[in-house]
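stage 2 :: seqdesign
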């Protein structure tokens, strides 16, 4: 009798221990996911945007998500390979006879692991500095001297929009930029991609511009600007190159 009671007590204790073991070995249901929202600069949601969760060490270790009609997404963080992950997002756009890919601005660049539940929001910005120092969301204009002694880094470029909106639909405005010497290349940096005409201004001189890659173009005070890729540029970097003369 005592033996039977002892066995019953052991079985009862074992049955109570099972739920406790199960609870301790499973992470909270909120862990292991990245959620967020993707919007344009005015705060409007962007559907159909690809979000990439990428391992910080192992190459070709990715998972992907796509934003819904409200610009929201949710994706599970992989358990393998172990370690840190980061999130990035890009948007593609065709305009002005070109295909563009834009990096979206992250709300945070901090890494996370499978044990985390994190929010990573993204915004489509056409200008401003990217998280990597010295890189920008805008395009750049490169100038090369060809028959003028004007100091290039003292020249001002004036961009006049020829359409009322930029590539993202936001209002276009006139932009003035001073040319800078960037590692030996004279350029005006961080121009929001849109459709412009451009002229170069320096006191006492009438400066002419000539597109380096347009054989049908002739030097003129004003030239059209359509940003594309000239030279060795990154995936989401765009420019246009002009000869500068008098």
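stage 2 :: out
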């Amino acid at each position: 009798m005592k033996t039977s009671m002892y066995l019953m007590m052991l079985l009862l204790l074992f049955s109570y221990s099972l739920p406790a073991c199960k609870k301790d070995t499973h992470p909270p249901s909120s862990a292991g996911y990245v959620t967020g929202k993707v919007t344009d600069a005015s705060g409007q949601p962007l559907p159909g945007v690809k979000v990439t969760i990428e391992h910080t060490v192992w190459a070709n270790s990715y998972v992907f998500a796509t934003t819904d009609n409200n610009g929201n997404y949710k994706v599970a963080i992989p358990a393998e390979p172990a370690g840190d992950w980061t999130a990035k997002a890009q948007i593609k756009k065709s305009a002005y006879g070109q295909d563009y890919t834009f990096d979206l601005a992250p709300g945070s660049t901090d890494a996370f692991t499978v044990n985390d539940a994190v929010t990573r929001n993204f915004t489509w910005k056409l200008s401003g500095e990217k998280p990597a120092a010295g890189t920008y969301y805008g395009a750049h204009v490169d100038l090369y001297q060809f028959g003028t002694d004007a100091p290039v880094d003292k020249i001002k470029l004036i961009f006049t929009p020829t359409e009322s909106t930029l590539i993202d639909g936001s209002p276009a405005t006139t932009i003035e930029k001073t040319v800078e010497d960037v590692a030996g290349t004279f350029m005006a940096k961080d121009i929001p991609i849109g459709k412009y005409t451009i002229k170069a201004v320096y006191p006492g001189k009438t400066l002419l511009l000539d597109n380096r890659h347009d054989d049908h173009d002739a030097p003129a005070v004003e030239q059209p600007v359509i940003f594309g890729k000239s030279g060795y540029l990154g995936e989401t970097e765009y420019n246009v190159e002009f000869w500068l003369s008098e």
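stage 3 :: structure notes
- Residues 169 and 220 are 29 Å apart (CA to CA).
- The mean pLDDT is 88.
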